[in-house]
Amino acid sequence: SDLFYIGIGVVDSAGALVKGIGNQYTPGQVQTLLNELTIPFTIIITLIILRKFPTILGLIGSAVIIVGVGVIILPDLFKSGTFEKNQFRWYACIIYGSNAAFFSLSFVLKEAIFKKENGSPYHLTTWVGVYMVFFTTLMYPIQALPGFGGLSLSDFIPIIWGGITCTAGSQESSIHLKLADTHDASPPPTVDCDFVWLPLLIFCISSF
User: Fold this and answer.
1) DSSP H or E stretch at residue 57
2) How far apart are CA 99 and CA 21, in angstroms?
């Protein structure tokens, strides 16, 4: 039903929101590691909602993935001195990492809908995407609050337009974000628009 789609859209929007809030002070290597939290969260939420316990082989495989990512990333992370640099905040990492809980819940809810209604993947993906865009837009002003992402309301239209043109491959539309943290002397981040459309194309094809 529409209420399910709206609910999943809200959950996905919340996941995107905490990602946006925590992204600024969560180093890229840490983000990669935190994204793997989706695996244990999905296992736990599946057990709670679907009453389905994972197989032993599945648990072992999940553990291997998480440990493998940690073994690859952590040594380089400590060597690079990332934790001593101004780009790291422990609370930002916790906020960013919480996105795994939201997206895991979204995955399980979608599975529950298929299990109950035998619905169409195209129909589900389309309407959840519509509601996610709607609620993400409503939640955007939260990122303008101090300590909640460092964006400005005046950046809203340029970010949206820059995202559209960047997806189309326009290198001139690289987005420059003015961060609210005046203590951060590092230059504002830019976005490289080369082949940014390719992951979106792959996602659309796989969704069909």
Assistant:
1) helix 56-79
2) 10
* Residue found under tokens 């950046």: 155
Q: Is the dihedral of CA 22, 27, 30, 35 positive or negative?
A: positive
Whether 18 and 102 have beta carbons less than 8 Å apart is answered as yes
CA nearest neighbour of 104 among 62, 60, 61? 62
Per-residue model confidence (pLDDT) at position 192? 64
* Token pair of 14 as six digits: 């919340």
Please tell me the total number of residues recorded for the chain in this structure: 208
Which structure tokens are listed for 27?
């180093």
Q: Dihedral of CA 18/22/23/27: which sign? A: negative
pTM score: 0.70
Residues of the chain with pLDDT under 50: 177-183
Q: Which two tokens stand for residue 97?
A: 């990492």
Residue that the structure tokens 């203590």 belong to: 183
Largest CA distance in the chain: 53
